[in-house]
Amino acid sequence: MRWFSPIPLSVKLPLLAAAMMVLVGMVASQQVLRSLAQVQDARIQELARMHVEGLSVALGPLVLRHDHWEVYDTLDRATQGGEGRRMVLTAVADERGRVLAATDPKRVPMDSDIAALADDVVALDDLRVNEASPSLSLLAPLIYQGRTVGQIATVLDVADLLSERRRALFMLIMGNAIAIGLLSSVGFLAIRRMLQPVTTLTRHMTETQGEPHPIPASEIPRGDGELARLARIYNSMVGAVTAKAEAERRLAERERFVALGRLSSSLAHEINNPLGGLLNATDTIRSFADRPEVVRQSAELLDRGLRHMRDVTRATLDQNRIDPETRLLTAEDLEDVKLLIQPEISRLDLDLEWCVDCVALANHIIPAGPVRQIALNLLLNACAAAGPKGHVGLTVGSGRGCLDIRITNSGPAMPEAALVRLLGDGPLMPGGGVGLRLVRELARNLGGTIRHERETEVTRITVSLPIPSEARDAQE
């Protein structure tokens, strides 16, 4: 049933309804045909019983006297009636089973064995219309005054009954096909119209491109049904997300300006104080250039002031520099990477496989910054290589004292230029980005290795990062 999953819901429901209608039609047709067969069997049995009973009354004395000509004449008159035309052949035998007369003497000669009339002779109560043969053979006792005086064999023509069954079957098939076709078409249109809000909601959720958009009011169903409420709830969520994003943007901007103001005032305060003294020193040097002692003292003052300003700028840089060595890798860092890569996954409709061993991360002391950059760069390249509706995967685990970060994609093989950037140390050729070479440099700075594999139409990049020696000693 895996092939059935990608089919849209607006097609699945009409197909299921049509399948149920076909099943119901088949069951109903079987019941109609079974009822028709029962009516036909009862009719043919009743006709055969009347035929046998009538002949028994008329032929009883003649059979006892073995009057061949009278028996033949009676059979001939019996076949002249309307229902008698169904009797293709009738033969009468005595108690020993020897034929006295038959409607077709050439086929059933006189004094022949009546059992040889047909191969599939059945009793009256077992008489059934069989699809395999257009005729039925009946063998019944000839009873006169309460005792059996002979036998009656009859071949009945049931071709018209079989034709009636075929016509009924054809009409049932045609009627069911027309009904199923019409109802399936109407059901498809009706269900598709009913599911239009769901399709619209799905489209808006999958085509967000990092920024969800509300459903227009013209596309929301009227009334207060479930689908209408669902669309309004989605619009409320989009509004809440937009408002939250705007609030976060304003808060971040405000914090940035506050931090910038604090930094500016701090720098102005720390630099402005010695700056006045430095300007006085330069004026003193200009005014008393002929006095070496004054120039020397002013130069020393300039040196101390400039050194102080240098210390201030260094302290400011150290306080605001992002040091990749200060924070260790945790599972939250990889969740941040997953969050950053999600817009690209949604835009290309990719299948993302994500497997992170949290125990392995807890046992490996590795800085977070370089690993985040490595994973993000490789995932971006994997998404671009996989293309729309492709497969991208990330697996993080441990093995042989290393943290293994494995990135896979189902796209074409990596070009030679990309492999040179990822695995080589030579100079880069003009053109192309620096992301793969950055991955190479970051992995090498951490003492790690990079492996490239290509098998079963899947490209696999594995970055193995060893545990730092001091961390290994601490674990031991």
Give a structural overview.
There is one protein chain. The protein has 476 residues and is an alpha+beta fold. It has three domains: 164 residues, Beta-Lactamase; 108 residues; 145 residues, Heat Shock Protein 90. It is built from twelve helices and ten strands. The strands form two sheets. It has a five-stranded mixed beta sheet. A five-stranded mixed beta sheet has the order 6-7-8-10-9. Strand 9 and strand 10 form a beta hairpin. Helix 1 packs antiparallel against helix 2, helix 1 packs antiparallel against helix 3 and helix 7 packs parallel to helix 9. The longest helix is centred in the middle third of the chain and has 62 residues. The protein is rod-shaped and about 175 Å long. The two termini are 53 Å apart.
The CATH architecture name of the largest domain reads 2-Layer Sandwich
Q: Could you give the distance between the termini?
A: 53 Å
Fourth-tier CATH superfamily name of the largest domain: PAS domain
Note the overall shape.
rod-shaped
Count of separate structural domains: 3
Strand content: 15-25%
Q: In CATH terms, what is the fold-level topology of the largest domain?
A: Beta-Lactamase
- Ranges where pLDDT stays below 50 over 5 or more residues in a row are 470-476
Question: SSE order in H/E notation?
Answer: HHEEEEEHHHHHEHHEEHHEEH
Radius of gyration: 50 Å
Q: What is the count of β-strands?
A: 10
Mean pLDDT: 78
Largest sheet: 5 strands, mixed
CATH class of the largest domain: Alpha Beta
Short précis:
The protein has 476 residues and is α+β, with helices and mostly antiparallel strands.
